[in-house]
């Protein structure tokens, strides 16, 4: 019933029926904009499963594969550089998101408690880094001095806490009524217990959204790898894909498998597009579950009462 | 008093020093401090100690000698920087792209949000929102790959053009069209996501305002001018001022990825300049000077933008 209600036009009694031309104009604008977003995804997906012949016939792209084949996927997932890079990306994303959420939540909680004596100086110190972001070279020198060059930690630790995310989470925590903390304190709960038992269960929306922000930024990052990992066999998938984007590098050639048909440019094209699809897929899978929390999670935190 | 803020708990049989007493009495303060330690350590190491290494801008930095042992160079890195035409070219590109973004990108999310807000069908609005937020979460590597696939030499657009008997157009690797292309890319990626904050402001407008305006004979345009726009005004002004303050940052990855295709004349911005001259070129002190220059100007601009926002009665970013 609810979904049916949603599809009915919910115009209030005082609202005049818009002119037909207005309605058509709005519809055209929105549909065109949506198609501009969706068609590139469709094209890449279709090209990745298209046969070499069809790609040749069309000159490099396919919108609708006539004889879909997953050859490109089995080729790149066959244990070569691309497979390895995807595993690296998964590892960085999982470990990084866990560390980021822990650091962000604990610091946001402490900075959100009004009676914390160091609250103001520490908050100012954190916000100052927003005013004066760390430059690329100073950041590089710190990573180097810590001996993290060529280590996977260099992809996580330098970006562990994002000030924007921290402010959002702190704002959300501060909107939780003080009486709830009071009640827990009377029951003898420590600060840690108040955080875990009272605050976190009420903050699922903001944690889901901020967790997605962190996960996406770890998954999508390629420059830290180029900057810090000299050994390109350690690179995550976005850094490997970057070789194709900037240099037209052949990603199928870097796989361990020998695919008999991979000589032609068209077979290469489907391989490259398969890498693009695999590099996009986790974001597309996580997105629908978190998307409904965006407004509630982010804006109630950012627009602090 | 040196030990007042020490994170290490004193022994149980303390000598009765003030620090130890404070530590025992303030269970809650101690717990909050411990909770803050990991995050504070992060900012101390990766921001404040990095901040200190900016001094290589005043040194003749030699990597294997380290920051402190490298010889001082006074302001020679800066004078070399300001005398370098390629630095000013990068600065000019940055400002030009910022200006294009401001004119062509900034207003679009506002318009799109107003359009979405005016839709009477809630579920249609939700579907469109899901679609237009999505590109924000796609990496720049993939965004550029998608653009190459559509607009590149062997891409969809040129395929359609040649099918139609027209000449192929070179958009992706043409330095002349690079700046508009870069703005188109940012519109594709972030225009939809940009609506979220305007939609939230619009959602806060009480429905009764629209209703009573309509009953007073105010048409759709009148309601737009007298209710919708004033509701958006504070957030538009705030974001505009913050964008002006951030005018030296146009994004880094987007330009790094396309610089090889179109060349530095078109795609070199301040951040890529620092990377190419410093990390790749090995001219560390010089590039650190460029980065520091950008950072100081940027901080002054953001700070003044925020002050102006306060003066205009808006909330500003730092409460």
From TrEMBL, chain A:
GO annotation (BP), single: transmembrane transport
Domain ABC transmembrane type-1 span(s) in chain numbering: 86-286
Main location per the UniProt record: membrane
Top-level lineage group: Bacteria
Gene3D superfamilies with a match to the protein in the record: MetI-like (1.10.3720.10)
Keyword Membrane: yes
Topological relation to the membrane, as annotated: Multi-pass membrane protein
One CC-aspect GO term: plasma membrane
Any Pfam family the entry gives: BPD_transp_1
Location within or outside the cell: Cell membrane
Keywords: Cell membrane, Membrane, Transmembrane, Transmembrane helix, Transport
UniProt key word Iron-sulfur: no
Membrane-spanning segments: 27-50, 86-110, 122-143, 155-173, 205-229, 271-290
Family named by the database record: Belongs to the binding-protein-dependent transport system permease family.
Record-given protein name: ABC transporter permease
Organism field: Mangrovactinospora gilvigrisea
